[in-house]
Amino acid sequence: MCRTVELRQAVLARNDDGARELRAELAARGTVVVNLLSSPGSGKTALLEAELGLARTRGVPVAALTADLATENDAVRLARSGAPVKQVLTDGLCHLETAMLRDHLAGWLPADTRLLFVENVGNLVCPASYDLGESLRVVLASVTEGEDKPLKYPTAFGLANLVLVTKTDLAVAAEFDEAAFLANVARVNPGVEVLFTSVRTGQGAGVLLDRALAVLDGTPAHRPVMAGTPGTGHSHTHAHGDDGHPHAHTHGDEDGHPHGSGAAHPHAAVAERS
Question: Tell me, what CATH number does 55's domain have?
Answer without folding.
Answer: 3.40.50.300
